[in-house]
Every structure is written in C-alpha cells, then in structure tokens.
C-alpha cells in the first residue's frame, strides 16, 4: 500500500483525513498479514482516483443523479469497485478558496456499467461543492477517494427501523436494498420513515415502491407540505411532520427488539435521537449516519 504524500492532506479538516486513513489501513493490513488476492479495487481510501462524469439526471429542482466511471491510468488496472452498502466516498474540490472535500454516498443502480457509480446529490445555492457540480460537464474529470464508514445492521434485531430526511435516504436505501433483495437470511422486518419537504422531494420513489413488494419491507412518508392530493403508488403519506407519537406507535411492544438507523441533517439527527431516547430505546441500538 502506497503511503500518501504529506501534500495530499489539504489541511481543511477533512473527516477522515487522508493521513489518518492511511495509518488505520496500515494497521488493519499488518494485522491481516496478507493482501486480498486477485481483487484490485478502483477506489482507494488513501489516494485519489480519477472518475469521469458519464451522466446527470434531474430528479427535481435541486436534486440530481450523477454517474461517474473509472478513468485513471494505473499500472495495475482495477477489476472491481468494491464498497459496502451505506459507505460513502469523498470528492475533492478546488475553488479560489483552496482545496476541500465533501462526502457522497453511492446508491445501488443496477444499470451502472462496471467500475461506475451513481450518487444522488442535492445542490445548494451557496454550497462550494454544489457550484462545482453545477458546472461539471459529461466527460469531465473528478477525483474521489474511499470507501469510508463501517456500519452493518444487526439482524439479531427483529425490527430494523430506518429514519431518513432528504438525501439522507441515500445510505439507508443502499442498506435496505441490500437487506431485502440480497440477504435471504435476514428475517427482520424493515421499516422506513422518510421525512421530506414536499412530494417532489420523495427521492428514489420508484425504487422504494419496488422494494415495497418484498414481504419484510414497508415505508411511510412524512411530508411537511404535501402538494399532491394522491399518493403516486398508494403509499402511506402523512401530510405533517413526523412526531414522537408516530414513532411511539410503531415501537410500542417492540422495545429491546428494535435497531434504529437515522440519516439526515445534523439537526434532524439530533431531534430524532432525542425522540428515540425518550422512547427508551438503548443508545447502543441506535446509529446516526
Ligand atoms: C457521510 C456523509 C454522506 C453524505 N452523502 C451525501 C449524498 O449522498 N448526497 C448529498 O447530496 N449530500 C451528501 N452529504 C452532504 C455533502 O457532503 C455536502 O455537505 C453537501 O453536498 C453540501 O456541500 P456544499 O459544498 O455544496 O455546501 P457547503 O459549502 O458545505 O455549504 C454551504 C451552504 O449550503 C447550504 N447547505 C449545505 N448543506 C446543507 C444541508 N445539509 N441542509 C441545508 N442546507 C445546507 C447551507 O446554506 C450552507 O451554509 C453527505 C455528508 C456526509 C457527512
């Protein structure tokens, strides 16, 4: 494993910093004592890899799918793009203020070609990386490193509860899909509470609907400002903000058998965690992305 150059650290407080990642990886590798045979991953947590933008698709006024394909020239060509559902990658940006990174979570898209990945991105008017996304051209080069984040749901829990806000759905969708589509051994019930601003913001709507056909998954949407009077697919859509009572109704009688995964803005994570604490769910059974 090649050590990163000191200059690879952009000194902008990235989490995780490339130098810390290298140390952690080195310790892991030394402990393992051998390199995984055969597989050459297109991504690396300790150095940047070039991917070109191959497609951009509008979902609503501010959210887009962006698809990237491996385009680096290395001696050892990669043969896989290896990451676990729910993990994230860091994209490097450069602007007049300097270098910086932002995290994005790849979502499973069956149509993706080999060594290709797709992220669901919300663009903010004043966001630094958002400005770069807005001007990205198909064929344009970008630099990514990863994957990061180690979380796997514990199937010992009978009820896996996912609570998402906005693009926070990305890691949760990746995990839910993996559980219900690929993991036949999982006998847990999977519930998603999805909190959105309006109906246009029900991201990955077709994908969630499709997952709804699996016996162990269903979802409810909480929409602050429901502007469509019918649910597109007879989904359960509540025209209100999710409250303590909504979660209480679901977890009643299930305490001790529930694991909760929360993903959204920092404020959302804090608010929902407070509700979960009040419900009496043990902190070790709660994971905030
Ligand atoms: C582990 C992890 C995974 C992530 N995965 C994704 C993902 O899959 N898709 C995705 O779109 N984002 C994801 N994010 C968020 C992403 O990393 C950036 O923070 C986001 O794209 C904004 O970056 P920016 O540089 O455009 O905005 P910044 O320059 O960081 O922010 C500038 C301004 O934009 C606005 N803004 C930025 N973030 C928010 C917010 N969350 N809510 C409201 N206003 C905001 C605010 O006005 C803020 O002052 C993830 C973050 C983490 C930590």
From TrEMBL:
FAD binds at residues 102, 104, 120, 129-130. Gene3D superfamilies: Nucleotide-binding domain of ferredoxin-NADP reductase (FNR) module, Translation factors. It is an enzyme of class 1 (oxidoreductase). Its cofactor is FAD. InterPro entries: CBR-like, Cbr1-like_FAD-bd_dom, FAD-bd_FR_type, Flavoprot_Pyr_Nucl_cyt_Rdtase, FNR_nucleotide-bd, Oxidoreductase-like_N, OxRdtase_FAD/NAD-bd, Riboflavin_synthase-like_b-brl. The keyword Flavoprotein applies. Keywords: FAD, Flavoprotein, NAD, Oxidoreductase. Residues 46-154 form the FAD-binding FR-type domain. CDD domains: cyt_b5_reduct_like. GO terms for molecular function: cytochrome-b5 reductase activity, acting on NADH; oxidoreductase activity. Its EC number is 1.6.2.2. It comes from the Eukaryota. It catalyses: 2 Fe(III)-[cytochrome b5] + NADH = 2 Fe(II)-[cytochrome b5] + NAD(+) + H(+). SUPFAM superfamilies: Ferredoxin reductase-like, C-terminal NADP-linked domain, Riboflavin synthase domain-like. Belongs to the flavoprotein pyridine nucleotide cytochrome reductase family. This is NADH-cytochrome b5 reductase. It comes from Tribolium castaneum (Red flour beetle).
């Amino acid at each position: 494993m090649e050590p990163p150059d000191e200059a690879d650290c952009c000194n902008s407080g990235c989490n995780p910093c490339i130098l810390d990642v290298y140390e952690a990886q080195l310790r892991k590798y030394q402990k393992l004592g051998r390199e995984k045979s055969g597989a050459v991953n297109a991504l690396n947590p300790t150095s940047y890899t070039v991917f070109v933008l191959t497609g951009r698709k509008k979902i609503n006024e501010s959210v887009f799918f962006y698809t990237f394909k491996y385009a680096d020239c290395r001696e050892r060509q990669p043969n896989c793009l290896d990451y676990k559902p729910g993990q994230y990658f860091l994209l490097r940006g450069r602007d007049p203020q300097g270098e910086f990174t932002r995290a994005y979570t790849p979502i499973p898209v069956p149509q993706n070609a080999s060594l290709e990945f797709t992220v669901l991105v919300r663009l903010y008017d004043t966001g630094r990386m958002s400005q770069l996304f807005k001007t990205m051209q198909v064929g344009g080069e970008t630099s990514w490193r990863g994957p990061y984040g180690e979380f796997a749901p514990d199937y010992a829990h009978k009820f896996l509860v996912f609570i998402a806000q906005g693009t926070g759905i990305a890691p949760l969708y990746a995990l839910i899909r993996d559980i219900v589509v690929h993991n036949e051994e999982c006998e847990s019930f999977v519930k998603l509470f999805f909190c959105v601003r309006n109906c246009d913001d029900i991201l990955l709507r077709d994908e969630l609907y499709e997952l709804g056909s699996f016996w162990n998954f269903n979802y409810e949407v909480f929409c602050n400002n429901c502007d469509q009077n019918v649910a597109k697919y007879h989904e359960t859509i509540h025209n209100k903000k999710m409250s303590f009572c909504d979660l209480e109704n679901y977890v009643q009688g299930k305490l001790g058998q529930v694991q909760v995964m929360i993903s959204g803005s920092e404020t959302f994570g804090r608010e929902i965690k407070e509700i979960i604490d009040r419900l009496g769910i043990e902190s070790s059974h709660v994971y905030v992305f």
